[in-house]
Records
---
Amino acid sequence: MKTLVLVEHEGGHLKDATLSAVTAAARLGEVHLLVAGEGVGGVAEAAAKIAGAGKVHVADGAAYAHQLAENVAPLAAGLMQGHDAFVAASTTTGKNVAPRVAALLDVMQISDVIGIEGEDTFQRPIYAGNAIATVKSADSKKVLTVRGTAFEKAAAEGGSGQIEAVPGGEESGLSSFVGAEIAASERPELTSAKIIVSGGRALGSSEQFHQYIDPLADKLGAAVGASRAAVDAGYAPNDYQVGQTGKIVAPEVYIAIGISGAIQHLAGMKDSKLIVAINKDEDAPIFQVADLGLVGDLFKLVPELTEKL
Amino acid sequence: MKLLVPVKRVIDYNVKPRVKADGTGVDLANVKMSMNPFDEIAVEEAIRLKEKGVATEIVAVSIGPAKAQETLRTALAMGADRAILVTTDDAVEPLAVAKILAKIAEEEQPGMVILGKQAIDDDSNQTGQMLAALLGWAQGTFASKVEVDGEAVNVTREVDGGLETLRLKLPAIVTTDLRLNEPRYASLPNIMKAKSKPLAQKTPADYGVDTTPRLTTLGVREPSKREAGIKVQSVDELIDRLRTVGVI
């Protein structure tokens, strides 16, 4: 089986989510990659170095500069004539593009794959992760999005893929990029961080969120996350949200501070290797999944922890 | 412009889903069902666009069992003008739903289709994007802000790194994220009024769409359980434990 993996990149760098998608694709067969963007020669070279990389199809042009689904999906669907499975990471980019590719191919996509049992049989979470379904696809071509937390990252070095330019690059004329507010941060990315410090509604305000969470995260070299309640209350920006409808994470250590542990939040972090919870309510559901729980006032405990580490 | 708002009847978001003992699915017998929360946000956004004078008519659509009529009545009570119910007792996958919606869009000629980014039962997050592909329209997924501007709509999207704004040529597809708005509750008089609003009954065959599933569910199981750990008594003990496991 020949697979085509959508390469995610930003600012000329290949994103880690791609490496997990490559691992999933390799379980199905040969791994070919698609790099779409503008000025992406460096990304294509990085993609060719991924362990196991076959052909790297590169579509370089203004039409692909912002990964607009209207332009990228027809490109991917065209390339799928020579491939059997399209694999994208379950990121906002992958989720935006893959179903559009699937519909162009008349294929029913399998979303958020967490397990591959064979070339047509996959496991995926449903009902906010409260159930895991095993589904078998009858489509001749497969379109998958895969959860990064469920597949190890492929080695970024060691491959020797062959770069091939893809002709074309038509603008659909349907959509255009206006602007973005992407938070520049020195901290690691949430979805690939080893340690995450996450804050909840108990932080009480945006000021306190940053006053208590940030120093601890900086001391640990951790990424910062938040519960939906904290994001909805405006204490933290939307891209911090961990949970079923936010980011799915599985770091080595997840430190939940002032997070009660609503089921939607647990769905986004329960695969973390070690969960630490600090909460004043000893009956909070977060303690049912935490390996280490500390009951008490976060406004006293968090500064103490930050200081003593 | 006319707005088309697809809504899905799903398990109420406050209910904890239970996997059936025989592993064939999730038990929905005698479980409270409601409108998919993301679709409620879509209905609310459509009503706000009508209140601003941007939209002239809101058509709610649901594809599902006869009881999905209740979900459509909720949309009508919130402020939709009329409804279309495409009745089927089969589970209809996002691809087939998108095909039916594409046919309805061809008939109704809406300026925008606004729908939830995903349903909280199958969590597919596909229908809007697929519908956009089938119609050849632009898509603004995971929207946190929607501003119609002449022949285009500016959609601010929640993306992994923050926010991104796209300008889409109309007609277009918009899928809603959590922070687009806070849906209103229907008032009692509006619930009463909704009962007499028009609701057309259709079937997938009326639109010539084959809804045969492409995916077969071989089994559904509970996720692996995580056991509760221990409670530590102090910050010092917490740090000791973390050092012992070697994570810091």
Note: The radius of gyration of chain B is 21 Å.
---
Amino acid sequence: MNWLDNNILTLVTFVPTVGAVLLLFFPRRDRDIRVFALVISLLTFVLSLHLPAHFNRNLPGFQFDKNVAWIPMPNIHYHMGIDGISMWLTVLTTFLTPLCVLISWKSIHERVKEFFILLLVLETALIGVFVSLDLFLFYFFWEATLIPMALLIGMFGHGRRIYAAVKFFLYTMIASMFMLAAILWLYANTNPHTFDFVAIQNAIQSGQLANLAGAARWLFLGFFVAFAVKVPLFPFHTWLPDAHVEAPTAGSVLLAGVLLKMGTYGMLRFNLGLFPEQSRANASWIVVLALIGIVYGALVAMVQPNLKKLIAYSSISHLGFVVLGIFSFTQAGLNGAMFVMLAHGVSTGALFMLAGIIYERRHTYEISEFGGLATPMPRYSTFFLFIVLASVGLPLLNGFIGEFLVLSGAFQAKMWWGIVGATGVIWSACYLLWMYQRVFFGKVKHEVNNSLPDLDIRERVALWPAAIIALVMGVAPLLWLNSIDPAVHNALVPFSQLASRLVGQ
Amino acid sequence: MALQTMQTIPHAADYIRILPEIVFSLFGLLVMFLDPIMDERRSQRTLGGIALAGAIAALAATLYQAQAHFWGLGFFGMVKVDAFSIFFHFVVAAAAILVILSSYEYMEVQHIRAGEYYGLILFGAVGMDLMSSAVELVLIFIALEISSIATYILAGFRRRSAISSESSVKYFLLGSFATAFFLYGVALMFGATGSTSIDRISAVMQEYAGSGHGPLLAYLGVALMFVGLGFKVAAAPFHVWTPDVYEGAPSPVVGFMSTAPKAAAFAVLLRIMFEAQAPGRIWLIWVAAALSMTIGNIAALVQDNVKRLLAYSSIAHAGYLLIAIASLPADGIPAAMFYSASYAAMNIGAFAVVGHFAGAGERYVTLEDYSGLGRRSPALAAILTIFLLSLIGIPITGGFFAKFYVFSAALQGSHPLIGLVIIGVLNSAIAAYYYLRVIVVMYMREPREDTPVPPIPAGLGIALGLSLAVTIYLGVLPGRVLEYAGRSVNLLH
């Protein structure tokens, strides 16, 4: 058991890559490739369940720690570890990947091998981002997510896929250059030089970094820009709708479900963790951007004629909640932000799967092409309704808990933050339910839609887990919050110290 | 006086100190000798095999030479074996091996006569090896000429093609002009310091450094030598020849001449700039580096010919490498050495793919021709993708650490080159776009059916496998190579 505890993070991270390498040598028989990819992704999921099962929430700091020297010069360590925050994001990734494999079963029929190899490599990179505790390793995985994702969009996407893939790649790559610069600065100014997150955090908190005072603002911004583009925070969001609309379904699911959370995770871990004072100093304008994102994303979503674009803009709105929660610096706000991340991953992932299912049947995302689908596809519309309600934030489903916590945190921080944020809940009900009405209710407007087949068994297998989790998260949020709460508490320690110091003066 | 009489006859160990050069020369002579007496149709493979054996033997000779008791000066203080020279000997020999392997089938496809081709690669390698171990400016000049003349001829080897001849003539004319500048610089340096030995120059420079003012002639000498070397490494503003020459020359040769002679020229530059403590280093190189990166990358954005695109990219990479030479020696020297090694691996690999894909007469070299390569030849496309990602500088490839070390070297010390690093980082972002264009075309465009893709032959396969392995190795475990490169810091400084 001890060996497993030591190496579990390495296993979870690299089992998908091993699977991808094995796939390289697979014969080009599509069915076998799919089954194998499913087995690998399920195996990864099962392995990752070891983490919550053996996670000790009474311990502060990082667990399942693995720290070995990798490259002596520069001093790079292979350092992995998780706390309550990164653990659940890891599990979210491993949870969504098998669903992605299932949902791509039929829709990918050309270059199947390449598709699943890229999907598995992407999974490794995503998990790596969450479990890395060495800034270099983190940056490596961060950049590594770009290539498989851009290729997934560019090779398997729809119409303007090349434009979307290149835009996605360049946007995020250029932004992360700033983060790299900040990381290198931290490395050069620590003594002894280190990329270790924990060591750098300690050095900053104990004031060992000599030149920090002048540079902190730029370092904060360097990290922040990279994360803000990824989230995406208004006004850095323009790559997202393009990427989503053109991406294949599995790409969208992982993009919305996990990739965007890399940004908010980064803010939580690095911006707050390393630069608490700067976070406080910059919070006001960041929250304003988040609020603009909430309202703007919702309003733009409302008028989208394209189903996928609507969901994409709803992501901008939801991720605005996460940023709002993070920069409220309250226990409730941060807990809520974490919970929204997970809930959004599940429900928006499921929404994209549902959109993909209808696309497979009709090859269009235009809402006007549908209408009255509830009659020919009762099961599909039930699932859709359930997920829409979860996403809207109906109590007892997962969206509600997170948004409620975020808003209560925002109200604690500043009244008007909460008020503006709360309108977002109303907006999301508007655009999602209106969309639902236009797609599923009324008479069947187009003859083709009458003969659409309902969900088959594979699609139901892909959707059930998401629906069940959405319900469980809504009914028993403590299962998650129990381990999130201590980690969030840790993250906020410097802030309470900061506050008491300010009061003391 | 006693010293001089003692040294009229070289020691036996002196020959070990030029062992790789001797091996290269012997095998080169053997190839040239066998070429006329062999049946032309069957000579290709045999001569290739001999050349390959020669390059491997030179690699072994380098390893033999690497034993510590052979280190030191030889031939009356003209050559020096140290970690630095061994590193570059290794790079040159490895580059020669990869190029010979990847030329194997290329020669048959292009109907190129093998004899002189392989002979010239080996003779060129002699010059490059000597460039990295010579510590005497006149010998450096001779080595530079040996390596240059071989590459001038190699550039024109596609005799049936007009652009290849154009390439050769252009390279020759501009190249001789540039070497003349170098020689002029050597003369001025001699005038300024009274010696052509790098050790002696270094001592004189230190005296001047003590008295506060350096000799004007020395500044001029360094600047002129830099013109000559800047031409060899294709650094702006001496880069104008590069795209035309690279476009016309045979692809494996481009792979060779964009890496091995460049590495050797950088070795000379490092010796002159650091070991001889040349004055006026930083600004000279600052400007050249900034210009090379910017001009190279921006011009590459609009190229539709893959060879020209890679030519401009190679100008840009010379710029990144120059950043290291403008940095402090402690970090700059290993960074520059690491960069030349990793650039050699990825660029030879990329040109090997390009050469193979180009087909007879190098017909398929435009970006359009690469459409859908990912579907028509998944292996070739995947390999080229990895090389291109390395050229972009994506982690787990050698290109990433190369850039990383260069930038972090530039940020060390009390006067970090922040401006240069910013220009470099912005340039790497621009560069991502055009490398990505190739990847996009390969994977995301529909294939054009009229361009056939021959299967990968054995020799090329081995060459690609090796360069891929080196690229990935340098990207995953760069520690050992960097540590070895770091050993030469004290020797040079």
Note: Chain B has 22 helices and two strands.
---
Amino acid sequence: MKLLKKLLFGDLFDGMKITFRSQAPKHIYTEQYPSEHPKVSERFRGAPRLNINPENGETLCISCDLCAIVCPENLIKVTSVRNPATRRKDLTQFTYDLSRCMFCGLCEDACPVDALELTQDFELASYSRHGLIWDRQMLEEGPHPQRYK
Amino acid sequence: MTGTFLDTNELVLNMGPQHPSTHGVLRVVLKLDGERVLSSDCVIGYLHRGVEKIAEHRTYAMFAPYVDRMDYLSAVSNGLGYCLAVEKLLNVEAPPRAQAVRVILVELNRIASHLFWLGTHALDIGAMAPLFFTLREREEVLKIFENYCGARITTHAFRIGGLYYELYEGFEAEISAFCEMFQGRLDEYEKLLTENRIWVNRLKGVGILTAEQCKDLGVTGPMLRASGVKWDLRKAQPYSGYEQYDFDIPTRETGDTYDRYLVRLEEMRQSVRIIQQAVKKIPAGPAMAKVPKVIKPPAGEVYVSIEAPKGELGYFIVSDGTIHPYRIHVRPPSFVNLQALSIMAKGALVADVVAIIGTIDIVLGEVDR
């Protein structure tokens, strides 16, 4: 039996059967990426976003600088001024250098007020290196990738 | 040089660093006599990033994402080894819930790593189809990682002291479904390869490494077990609650490339067994031990090793009592296993060198660090 199987190339045909069986359309797993946008998971760590309060449009960031301290690549710069009326720090500038970011999520963990968040946006390409250094406005608005039909 | 024109000369040939079957940027200097390899030398360092040096300028928590980038095919295992080492230094232990989830994710990672090895190894030998099948199943594992911690490859899944992410809804169901499906798929791979005559002829008797040679070189992992040594750190010095699970250590006798293939396939089956046991009884309770916000371990040194998919992965950490580690040394399995290449390749054909490099299962990110 074993010899017969060997003579008739049984081992090779067994493999061929599997190969041809998986060519049925229901076994196609390829994602048609640009035309079909893949759905990433809820916890996906993508583009950073600086959340704003939807009611009054003010930033949630309290300029505590914890994200900048905890970042392993030291790529976050937070500047603020002390507001004499409220005795609080007001955020002036927030720059985030995406070109050095490794999306480890430590800044997100450190943020005490859920202001900094890594979102599900993953299309981050830029034509210049400078375009990857996001300022406060960019962080609040999020990326605007061009959609190709 | 004397002799007739029929004499052959020794030929020195560079294989790599840009050779598709060296799995990254490994350069092997081969000294050839015709098709036979007289000697081979590995030249490494093309992917050196100085990870151990980077550690000296980071705090303990900050360094955790970097270890994922050494063996990027089994980032979760790397993270576990590092977390266990720092936990031992701090003298804390992760709670049982964290331990169970860690075991599940690490074993899933072992499957993912072995699947990638199987696909690329088969591709080196000339079988194209298994690559697509194994990557399809690996995708399922990566999807679980993405759902759990938000990243697919460089996961940063564990934190020092336990878990940061809670389990998502449907975690157990997703993993059970994967295990069910995966066992059938493993049988498919066996059908494609195990008895395939080309596969058998290319692998049997190639790159034989005896148990003695393995021990002399410090080779660990599936390569050691394929030579007949029953050594697995999960059994020998259990960590993270491995003693609760029932599984076997697959071994083979000959220690050739074909045996290493069989050992790794069997290991995937055992991993499925462990995952199925673990997922049934994830204990309730906290997922994070009491760890100070600023990790400042007492002065001292510690060595912790775990059984990564490729072999013994060890972390040696020296602490001087500050928030930065004084020194971190990594004992990567790929780097040590790569030493065996020149022994195995001696006298082999050039085409077999491709099979031998594949069977070591190296990741150059880990070899060079």
Note: Residues 10-21 of chain A form the longest helix (12 residues).
---
Amino acid sequence: MDVSQYLEIFIDETKEHLQNLNEHLLILEKEPDNENTINEIFRAAHSLKGMAGTMGFKRMQRLTHDMENVFSEVRAGNMKVSSGLVDVLFRGLDALENYLANILESADEGTEDNEDIINELNNILKSGVGGSTQAEGKVTVSEVASKVEAKAVEANDKYKFKHIKLDEHEINAIKKAKEMGLNVVGLTVYIQENCVLKGARAFMVNRTLEEHGDIIKLDPSAQDLEDEKYDYDYSAFVVTKDTPEVLAKNAMDVSEVKEVVADYYQLSEANQTPSVAVSSDTNAQSSKNQETSSLKAGKAPAAKPAAKPVVNRSVRVDIEKLDVLMNLVSELIIAKNGLISVSSETDIMLNSTFHEHIEYLERITTNLHESVMKTRMVPIESVVNRFPRMIRDLSKKLNKNMELYMTGEDTELDRTVIDEIGDPLMHLLRNAADHGLESNEERERLGKNPVGSIFLDAYQEGNNVVIEVRDDGAGINVEKVRNKAIERGTITADQAERMSDKEIIDFLFQPSFSTAEKVSDISGRGVGLDVVKTKIEALGGEIEAKTKLGEGTNFIIRLPLTLAIIQALMVIIGTEKYALPLGSIQTVENIPDTEIKKVQGKEVVNLRGSIIPIIHLNQVLDCEKSEDTDEGETKEHLVVIVKKGERFAGIIVDQLLGQQEIVIKSIGKYIKCPKLISGATILGNGEVALILDVNTLV
Amino acid sequence: MAAEEAKQYIIIKLGNDSYGIEIKYIESIIVMQRITRVPKSQPYFKGVINLRGEVVPVLSLRKRLGLEEAQDTPATRIIIVRPEEQAAPIGIIVDEVREVISLTGNDIDRLSYEDDRINFSLGIGKHESQLINILNITAMVETEKQN
């Protein structure tokens, strides 16, 4: 058995703890006296240290240890929280994150010692407290030791190991060890009742013990411990050079260990009178249980302030399993569509029970799809919760005061989207902080609140999730962009005149188009918004910018709730079937030929007061003309009106086939196809139809 | 050269010419299917088909090699290949599938000259009296990098 199988747990938990530390440090900076926060920080740092230690990440352990020392001083009230202190602590967190990143990559923490941070931490400790860290450390050690001793007196029964019967060869081993002048230490380890993976915990404790000596017996056996076939305590016998106190202290450092009792083991105790020991063992068991529970009541709050929910009713599932499940649901829906198309073709339709069953099946598959989709949904919180910290750092770096306000962190998105959305959002926030907001002096001069505000709002809107990144800064100077576009030769001055502000702003999403006069290391290299746009579009979403000079800029991102199954309108263009996602369709209109006018060589239609450009899909797609359009001047056109943001377009199709739930399939990377084709789907009769992303036409 | 291991190839026909595809690439051989055209794709792609619930692109070997298109006949087949073990499948339309043969390295002559069409060739194999153009599947499905 090696430690690597716990690596994943370690990584997950470390991430959680680091995030926790980040959040609470931010709070601490604002409210230096918030006791809960300090306790929470201390707890997280302590668990982190223990975990890093058991996994053998020594550098990480050392750094957390020194950070913990600082936290402990703060908690004891010996030290004031200053901005400088928080800065160093944040740097420490960053260093820890780097370790974690290394571990993620190579299961190794790397070789960076971060000596400077450690030194700085120690300097702070020295100057802040006056006393030396060493003394402080010893106090805690001896405290623990004395606690252990005190408990030894009051609760001898907790030393379960004293009642364990040893085999002959184990007794021999103990005798031999004593002859060699080594200590035989018995321990009973109590794991917290809410521990999720107690097998792993026991393993970590044993590993710690093995650093100090050899484990000669485990009760229950190592295999049972690993299989979690034990209650919340187990005993171990260790041959070691160290004292029981040292072993107990080290074992306690493993997180989720409630208590460890240890003492020298005397052979006489259990094994010279084995029959008595067995019977007293069972007696002791019940009284012990009572005792531990009463002890727990007294001790638990001190060790772990009620921070974690006691029982978390959730299961960690590998994302791949969910993908498989989703694929199966997709196939089920295809099969269902097949049944429907068979039933509508044959006389079976006449049989009403068959029809009923089909409807029932349809309802189930829709619900099933929805449920599976929900299991894949993750609150956006997991992405955005690192932003407050980022804005704080930017604020320092740029020397601008700013605040980040976030709403709708609980808005949920598909896991695959969540994984990808972080970078684009970060980019937009950096942009807002760097270019969007004016300097403090400038803001004061303009009569604005000197502290700039950045807003991040997430909410659901129909089948989309909208994320807005907004600032109350200077806004985009449209004229400047216009001039830049002309300067770069993107458009002529003539064209520029005719273009709307909105069209001009869209230039910002083009590659290497930055209006920042100076390039900073935060943003402005011109590889910004186009990358953001590409990423968002790859996720099936879209982005637009709104701005008002002097009042701020708003970037609006729309993302689809799910990527796999959508409602679509099936249409026929020429001789081919296509699927148009229902989400972007506004209405379907019958428009007479005469209504379609030409303006500047482009066809438009005036629909209830708004001018909408007309797109002939059969031309865009090089379709063959279908017979009925061939045979002559159709008086009316079927026009599907699609909406993207605030813009509309009318798409001429030949025939409507109705609405259908379709499963999106990729058409693979071999075929190069226009952006307009976003994928393919398999229809009920087994035919493949292409899905048109009509948004690209608007 | 006893060390040269024999590899198995599937012999396919385009008109009178024989071509070989190494058997390790081949997943299955299916009869002609209804193909959905993909507008504005590379000209040699005929479109996509439904292969047991998956959408699989198919290309015309004739067009890919710059030959004349031929009418589909009952002998026309789509060979489903995977250029790499983990890669997505892709279909190749051929006029006819003949047989499976074994060739060792000695039976295959590397070509020394370069030609656009020959780029997809790994060499010419000799089997009985036939000359077989061994196709380079990986190169064939790769989208041209220059555009």
Note: Chain A has five domains: 3-131, 141-303, 319-376, 379-560, 565-697.
